[in-house]
Every structure is written in structure tokens, then in C-alpha cells.
């Protein structure tokens, strides 16, 4: 009898516990609002890369649609850098420079929700930037950047039919669940001031972040940020504002995720090789926020969205025609490499990379007669990415989209020394020099040419882009054919299509094919 009573008691307790647990789960679900954020950053290419293996904005569109089916509260966000650089952006279409038009059209087709400004948005001139802004159907957020119009500061704005819609410094977004419970999410966006132009004014991004957070916090349940700054500054920002729950980062091109205090910092790989999916669950009763982040690779296993694929193909056909006119075969495999070639702007403009060395060696090899050394400006490399595996002519075009002639310049050693010193002073910008057959000893501040100490009185023969000898690069205004220390200039015939020196891209292709 005691066993029967105990069994009945246990059954009643078990049923009561299950019912209580179910009730608690139901209440939790009723009080929970789920938000999904699809994050991209630093996207310059609309089509798949590496022979179709990775990336591709039509595949991103498919991921977005899947997430929307899973949760209607889904936002697609790009954390800066998309208008430039790109190979296709250097060509013309309908008589006008493309300059990011292809990216805006593709992003409109996908249905992006919010973007932050990246430093590369300011590569293009003021008028073209305004055109891209006006063409966009997504929202822009800018907390520390203003438009400088002849000394008057105002927010950048979308201009439609004469009506201006200024970029907000912050935004407040409301999400609801099926029961009507709602959550308010605040968001701000900052960018580093690495591309200073006369028409752009930057405020300190740490101070701007602090002001934005203080403005948003009383109005919302939690705050996140779109950031386009160095990862070290992201970490510092997280320490400074520990209540900002999530930093959707950009500028660094390799995927990463870290937690600083209670703040999650996430960055995907450049060119949509990966995306981050953040699933946020906010309990409206307890005010607790749970974030689960997933890095998803964008591969050939993801079907392309048909609508977006049509837009991508339109622009790829435009690119194909432009390349054919330039005598290039984009699918031709030039070489295959195992060690990634580093063409990232942050490395090439601050130090020497294997890609910089490779281009400079190719220039040396292209000389008709032996030269003492080769130099070129890092700013001529615009890929801002790393390359590995099969390298095609298209990849070479992406590396050096502007092409241009290389020339042999005879000069006095004192001028060569001045050029090399200027290159060091240009650290951080496009005038930083990459070279071949040159070395520098910091301890004695000595330059060596082909292993021998540079002699200021000796004559040298130097291969360089014609762009450099025209004095067009930063702080190189003195470097022209008229400089008294320039002793001669040897260049190819413009009309000789067979002379590789007329196009540095063809110089690099030929060099790689011989290796």
C-alpha cells in the first residue's frame, strides 16, 4: 500500500513539474522577442571568387531569404567598404564611370537594410558618392562623419526629387513577437578617419560613440553598433562602453569574434567569403539579452538567388566586354600559389609584403637592359584582399586595376635617396613604396642598392610606374622628368601593343607565367 501511495505521489509530482515547466517555457516564449542580424563587411566583388568556390552576392541573397523565413525580424547589415575598390568600378558604362554603381544595384536587389560608412566610400569623388547615395534603397547610419560643403558641416544625405533625407547619427528600431511583445534596439555607426578628403569631416569616433550611446540608452532596451575601425580600437570601445552588446565590425578582412567583458565583437571575411549570423533573444520580462553568433561560409553549395544573379551577370558582362577591349582573358590561369599573396591596404601601405615584392621583381625582369632596382607606389594595388590558389588574369586586373606604363629612369644617387626617404615618410598612405633590390638598415639609416651602400654621387637606373615620374603621388611633386638629377627616361612606344612595359598588369602576368 505504501508503494502505491509513493508511486501516486511521484506521478502527481512529475505531472505537476512537467506542467510547471511547460508553463514556464510558454511564458518565456511569450516574453521573448527574437532578432536576426545578417552581417557583411568589406565587400568589393559581386561575383564568386576563386573560380566560383567562394563568395558571391547572389548566394548572400539566398542566405537572407532563408533567415527571413526563419524569423521575420531579420536585418541585413554591411559594416562599411563596398563602393570601392573594385576592378569593375574603374571602367565606364553608359559614358560614365561605374564607381560602385554595380554594388549599389546588387545591394538594392538583395534588400540590404542598413549600412555604415567605410573609409573606402570616400575613395570616389564627392559627386559620384552623392550619386551612389541617391541610387541606394537602403539606410545609411553615420555617427562621427559629416559632409563639409564649402566650410558648412551637415549630415550626408540622400537626395530624392529635391528632397533631402539626412543620414541619422543614431537609430531606434522596434521589433515584436507573435504575441505583440516588443523590444527597442538602438544602433549607431562609426568609421576611422583614414581617408581624409576636403568634403568629409570626422569627429573622434570614441567620443561620438559615447554620445550616441548616452542618447540611445534611455530610449531603448539595448544598444549595438556598426563599426569600421581597427580591431584594437573595437576592443577599446568595448571596454569604454561595456553595455553596448554587439559590435558589427569591419575594416579588418579576416573573420574574427571575441568577447570583451559582456560585448561581442564580430567581423566576417572580406568579399562575402563568409557572413556572420547573429541571433538575438531578448526577454521582455527579465530584460536579459542572449546572443548566439554563427560564422557561415559562402560557398558553391549555396544556390544563387535567381533575381540577384541576373543583376550580377549584367555587370559581369559589362566587365567582360571591357576586359576584352583591353586585350585580357579573365579566365586564363596565370599561376597557382600556396602562400596567400597579401594585398591588404593596411599591410601594403605600412610595410613590405610578398605581393609587393612580386610586382617589383616583375618590373625588374621587364627591363630591356639590366636596372639597379625597381620601385612602385603601394596605392597602385587596389585589391585590399589576399589571394591564394589559382591566380587568373582577372585576379591580376583586380590587383592592379589602373594598369599604366612602367619606365626606366636614370638618376643621381641623391635623388634616389630622397625618393626612398619620401616613401618611408609616406607610411600609411598610397605613396609608401614597395621595391626590388633595395634594403634599408634602420640602425644606421642606410640604404643599400643590390647589396651595396647607396652612393649619392653614383648614377642609377630605376624601373618605376610612369605615374611616379609625373610627380602625381603624395609628397612626390619633385619627381618629374624636369628634375635636374633625372638623367634620362626610357619608355616603350605607346602604340606597340606587344611591348609589355605599356601595362604593368601584362608585365606581372608574363613574369608569373615564366616562373
UniProtKB/TrEMBL annotation:
Keyword Membrane: no
Keywords associated with the record: Hydrolase, Nucleotide-binding, Signal
5'-Nucleotidase C-terminal domain mapped to chain residues: 335-474
UniProt GO BP: nucleotide catabolic process
Gene3D superfamilies: 3.60.21.10, 5'-Nucleotidase, C-terminal domain
Domain Calcineurin-like phosphoesterase: residue ranges: 36-254
MF terms (GO), sorted A to Z: 5'-nucleotidase activity; metal ion binding; nucleotide binding; UDP-sugar diphosphatase activity
A GO cellular-component term linked to this record: outer membrane-bounded periplasmic space
UniProt similarity note: Belongs to the 5'-nucleotidase family.
Protein name as annotated: 2',3'-cyclic-nucleotide 2'-phosphodiesterase/5'-or 3'-nucleotidase, 5'-nucleotidase family
Organism: Pseudarcicella hirudinis
Amino acid at each position: 500500500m505504501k508503494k502505491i501511495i509513493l508511486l501516486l505521489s511521484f506521478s502527481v509530482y512529475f505531472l505537476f513539474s512537467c506542467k510547471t515547466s511547460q508553463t514556464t517555457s510558454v511564458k518565456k516564449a511569450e516574453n521573448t522577442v527574437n532578432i536576426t542580424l545578417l552581417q557583411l563587411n568589406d565587400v568589393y566583388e559581386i561575383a564568386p571568387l576563386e573560380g566560383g568556390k567562394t563568395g558571391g552576392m547572389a548566394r548572400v541573397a539566398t542566405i537572407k531569404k532563408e533567415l527571413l523565413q526563419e524569423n521575420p525580424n531579420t536585418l541585413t547589415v554591411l559594416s562599411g567598404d563596398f563602393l570601392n575598390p573594385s576592378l569593375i568600378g574603374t571602367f565606364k558604362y553608359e559614358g560614365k564611370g561605374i564607381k560602385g554603381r554595380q554594388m549599389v544595384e546588387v545591394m538594392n536587389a538583395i534588400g540590404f537594410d542598413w549600412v555604415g560608412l567605410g573609409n573606402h566610400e570616400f575613395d570616389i569623388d564627392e559627386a559620384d558618392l552623392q550619386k551612389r547615395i541617391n541610387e541606394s534603397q537602403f539606410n545609411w547610419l553615420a555617427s562621427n562623419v559629416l559632409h563639409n560643403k564649402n566650410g558648412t558641416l551637415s549630415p550626408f544625405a540622400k537626395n530624392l526629387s529635391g528632397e533631402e533625407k539626412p543620414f541619422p547619427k543614431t537609430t531606434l528600431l522596434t521589433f515584436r513577437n507573435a504575441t505583440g511583445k516588443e523590444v527597442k534596439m538602438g544602433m549607431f555607426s562609426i568609421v576611422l578617419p583614414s581617408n581624409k578628403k576636403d568634403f568629409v569631416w570626422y569627429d573622434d569616433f570614441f567620443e561620438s560613440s559615447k554620445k550616441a550611446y548616452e542618447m540611445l540608452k534611455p530610449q531603448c532596451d539595448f544598444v549595438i553598433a556598426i563599426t569600421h575601425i581597427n580591431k584594437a580600437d573595437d576592443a577599446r570601445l568595448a571596454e569604454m562602453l561595456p553595455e553596448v552588446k554587439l559590435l558589427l565590425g569591419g575594416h579588418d578582412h579576416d573573420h574574427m569574434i571575441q568577447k570583451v567583458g559582456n560585448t561581442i565583437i564580430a567581423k566576417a571575411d572580406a568579399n562575402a567569403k563568409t557572413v556572420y549570423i547573429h541571433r538575438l533573444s531578448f526577454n521582455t520580462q527579465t530584460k536579459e539579452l542572449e546572443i548566439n553568433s554563427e560564422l557561415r561560409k559562402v560557398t558553391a553549395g549555396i544556390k544563387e538567388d535567381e533575381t540577384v544573379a541576373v543583376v550580377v551577370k549584367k555587370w559581369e558582362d559589362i566587365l567582360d566586354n571591357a576586359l576584352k577591349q583591353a586585350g585580357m582573358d579573365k579566365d586564363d590561369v596565370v599561376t597557382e600559389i600556396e602562400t596567400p599573396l597579401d594585398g591588404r591596404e593596411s599591410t601594403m601601405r605600412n610595410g613590405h609584403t610578398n605581393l609587393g615584392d612580386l610586382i617589383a621583381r616583375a618590373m625588374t625582369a621587364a627591363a630591356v637592359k639590366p636596372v639597379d632596382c625597381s620601385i612602385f607606389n603601394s596605392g597602385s594595388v587596389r585589391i585590399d584582399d589576399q589571394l591564394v590558389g589559382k591566380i587568373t588574369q582577372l585576379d591580376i586586373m583586380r590587383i592592379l586595376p589602373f594598369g599604366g606604363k612602367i619606365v626606366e629612369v636614370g638618376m643621381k644617387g641623391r635623388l634616389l635617396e630622397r625618393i626612398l626617404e619620401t616613401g618611408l615618410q609616406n607610411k600609411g598612405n598610397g605613396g609608401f613604396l614597395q621595391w626590388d633590390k633595395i634594403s634599408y638598415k634602420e640602425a644606421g639609416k642606410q640604404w643599400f642598392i643590390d647589396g651595396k651602400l647607396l652612393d649619392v654621387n653614383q648614377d642609377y637606373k630605376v624601373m618605376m610606374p610612369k605615374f611616379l615620374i609625373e610627380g602625381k603621388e603624395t609628397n612626390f611633386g619633385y619627381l618629374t622628368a624636369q628634375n635636374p638629377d633625372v638623367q634620362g627616361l626610357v619608355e616603350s612606344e605607346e602604340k606597340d601593343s606587344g611591348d609589355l612595359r605599356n601595362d604593368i598588369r601584362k608585365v606581372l602576368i608574363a613574369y608569373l607565367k615564366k616562373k
